[in-house]
Design a protein that fits this description.
- Residues 27-94 form the Transcriptional repressor PaaX-like N-terminal domain.
- This is Phenylacetic acid degradation operon negative regulatory protein.
- Residues 175-262 form the Transcriptional repressor PaaX-like C-terminal domain.
- Pfam families: PaaX, PaaX_C.
- The protein is α+β, with helices and mostly antiparallel strands and 297 residues long.
- It folds into 2 domains: 10-112 and 173-293, Winged helix-like DNA-binding domain superfamily/Winged helix DNA-binding domain (Arc Repressor Mutant, subunit A); 117-158, no CATH class.
- 52% of the residues lie in helices and 12% in strands.
- The chain has helices at 2-7, 15-21, 28-40, 49-57, 63-75, 94-108, 167-174, 177-199, 206-224, 241-266, 279-293; strands spanning 46-48, 79-84, 87-92, 117-120, 133-136, 139-143, 155-158, 268-269, 272-273.
- The strands form 3 sheets. It has a 4-stranded antiparallel β-sheet with strand order 5-6-4-7, with no helix packed on it. A 3-stranded antiparallel β-sheet has the order 1-3-2.
- The longest helix has 26 residues, at 241-266.
- It starts with a helix and ends with a helix.
Length: 297
């Protein structure tokens, strides 16, 4: 260890961290959304294309794939390009910032679990996105969540009067809970060894900390945004969402300090380097800290 410190080299990366970063490259468009949501949105929403190419290359995503994915994100109305001399910068559109803010609330400030159910008696032919599930002609059911926008038409709150033991079987018929549970378990299997390494003394440098954090957010985000967050009585007793959430909170907070310092030294927008910390990033960490010590479930 003394030789490593004197030589100025970064400490050796443990196998568990190397396994995460050397795994199959994430999908370019989804990963770019992760970069913007985790790093760029709370720091103004704009990033130099060169920075984006560099950060994606560390995850096995080529420059050509980055440029193709960015073009598609522009076409879909999420990004807007602008020139600054010979450099290209891409910023989030207003619509994308609203979308990213909604996703950030699920990741960094999830509301309390649903306590009951909403019954929509005028359900349209095409239902809104999850968590609505059609349970009969013109009828749709959803968890009564604080963050759920109420649809138009006749909407009622309903409660379980008896037979609550049958709720998990009922929920499994209308929501794809097995697939979501398997995705949560995959995140746990991938990242729990990293939590052990970090608690055992592994301290990644800034580049490695950010790379690990981005992989964590990318994989956790993919399943958390699919989770209908049903009332706990409707979930299996071994539901892995709670364990996965606790792992995400612990790892994100542990990796954040070195990651944010690295961002402040290497990420650029049209005005120069991004800030290492902003009011938005500080608020995220504050909320995660409160959740870690006072979990909601």
């Amino acid at each position: 260890m003394e030789q490593v410190e004197r030589s100025g080299q970064a400490p050796a990366m443990p196998a568990v961290a190397d396994d995460i970063l050397s795994a199959e490259a994430p999908r370019a468009a989804a990963f770019i959304v992760t970069v913007y949501g985790d790093v760029v949105e709370p720091r103004g929403g704009t990033l130099w294309m060169g920075t984006l190419i560099e950060v994606c290359s560390a995850h096995g995503i080529s420059e050509s794939l980055v440029r193709t994915a960015v073009s598609r994100l522009v076409a879909s109305g999420r990004l807007l390009g602008e020139r600054g001399g010979r450099r290209s910068f891409y910023r989030l559109t207003s619509a994308a910032r609203r979308e990213f803010a909604a996703a950030a609330r699920i990741l960094f400030a999830p509301p309390p679990p649903a306590a009951g159910w909403l019954l929509w008696a005028d359900a349209a032919d095409e239902l809104p996105r999850d968590p609505w599930a059609r349970i009969g002609p013109g009828l749709a059911l959803a968890p009564d969540r604080a963050d759920l926008d109420p649809p138009d038409g006749l909407l009622m709150r309903v409660e379980t009067l008896k037979g609550a033991a049958a709720l998990p079987e009922f929920a499994a018929r209308y929501w794809e809970l097995d697939g979501i549970a398997n995705s949560y378990r995959a995140v746990i299997d991938r990242f729990a060894p990293l939590a052990e390494a970090l608690s055992g003394g592994y301290g990644p440098d800034g580049a490695a900390a950010l790379a690990l954090r981005l992989r964590l957010v990318d994989q956790y985000r993919a399943v958390a945004l699919r989770d209908p967050r049903l009332p706990s009585a409707a979930l299996p007793a071994d539901w892995p969402g709670r364990q996965c959430r606790a792992l995400f909170v612990t790892l994100y907070r542990t990796l954040a300090p070195a990651s944010d310092i690295y961002i402040g030294r290497h990420f650029q927008d049209a005005d120069g380097l991004l800030l290492a910390s902003t009011e938005g990033t500080a608020l995220r960490l504050e909320r995660l800290e409160r959740e870690e010590y006072h979990p909601t479930d």
